[in-house]
Amino acid sequence: MEELEIRKQFEIKEMELNALLEITQAINSNLPEESLYKIYNFTLRSNLNITKLALFVFDEDWQCKAHFGTKHPYYKIKLLPEFKTIQDITHLREFKHCEFTEFDIIVPVAHKTTTLALVFVGGLDQYDVRYESEDGIRFIQALSNIIIVAIENKKLARKQLEQEALRKELEIARDVQQFLFPKKLPNTDVLKVEASYLPHDRIGGDYYDYIPMNKNQFLICVADVSGKGIPAALMMSNFQASLRTLVRQTPNLTDIVEALNYQVLENTKGEKFITFFAAIYDIRLKTMVYVNAGHNPPILWDRQHGIRLLEDGSTVLGAMDPLPFLNEGFLTDIDDFLIFCYTDGLTETTNEAGREFGVETLLKYFQNDHIYTRGLKKIHEDIIVALDEFKGNKGYHDDITILSCRVG
Fold it and tell me: Which Pfam families match (predicted)?
């Protein structure tokens, strides 16, 4: 009798070792999660003769990943809230009037204070007593723990790969974006241009430029493409190349804007759009022509007329072709002025109360009597400091680009 019991115990241990071996080999073979669940299912049914089981795993939400021998389709059944925090082996007799009472016990798989999975085991009273013993139940728990930990490691590795891919994407997009910005901006007694770029944690689609056209004319512009990441950076790179090519071909700003609109629509099929402001200034004639295509109106300060917003233009680029309207703004006899351009990340920054920084705050700043005596760099610093104080502990939700130009 004693020899029979020893042999029986030996057979049990052998089956348990075989089960562990199968699971370990499956994990080492780097099989996908779905395959691991199937092997887990098969191993418990064949090697340990378990007849009723349901495995629930927390994967953003609780889901049944394996079940057999049950009356109910547990893939469709939601886990009861009181089950989700169980960390000790629990008898189902404590729970009444629910689908899960066809099981005998719940075997948890936990990490510290977090429950990762729950194994519902039933039919224990019909088979070998070893399943009611502490060793048998602990083995089910150990086997489940091995498979769940392996799958959690797979999830972690996948997240790490995704994060690495995102890091590389942002790095590429950041490099692309840096190529868009001019390496050198003029800083002479007659003409000064200053730019500030505050990137958000993800690459956006902001763009600014200064393009000399001839000895008398130059173009300044600022743009913002909808979306973020590599698609936005590549789209803006294409936009910059198109703009620079068009500027070499024609000084007509209306023709340039119409051509840009057509190319944006062709490239994006209407799924993205670009807000765009561009101005061409002629130093000899003292004239400025500009187009505002759905962009935040730049602020123009000049000694004769004070402050005004540059709003004439059209709608956003890339939404429709032809543009429904296109009006050039034209200013004459300006030779002593400052123009302040920006993207919506500046004025739409919110504080802890949910209020936006707004264009009124900018206008109030530029109404200062001493604005013209301040350097462009100082103006940018003042506004960035004011913005940072305004938002408080609230984070920035978009890129912020500022481009300023002073003539005279």
Answer: SpoIIE (PF07228)
